[in-house]
Fold:
Amino acid sequence: MRIITLAPYFSVMTTSPRVEIKYCTQCRWLLRAAWMAQELLTTFESELGEVALQPGTGGIFDVSLDGKLIYSRKAQGQFPESKELKQLIRDHIAPDRPLGHSDRK
Structure:
C-alpha cells in the first residue's frame, strides 16, 4: 500500500499493483482504454489494487504497471490484444496463476 498526497488537504491510500492506461483523446481511444481496464479488473479482481485511465495526446496508448512501462502501441506498432496484455500483467504480479483460455496458443 502507498499513500499519495494531493495538495495540502488530503491523502489517498492506494494498493499495489497499479495499472495505468494512457490513451489518446485526439484519436478517441477512451472506449478502447476503458474496455481494456474492464478486462484487467475482471481477470485480476483480487490481484490488482487499481486501474487508472490517463488522457493524453499524440497517438499514445501506453500501459504501465507500478510506474514501469510494459506496453507501448507506438513501440509495438499495434494495440495490445487483451490476451497479450493479461499475460504481461500476470507475468509481473502472479506468475504462477493460470489464465485459462488466454494461456492457450
User: Anything to note?
Assistant: The chain has a mean pLDDT of 89. Residues 2 and 58 are 31 Å apart (CA to CA). The chain has three helices and six strands. The first strand starts at residue 2 and ends at 6.
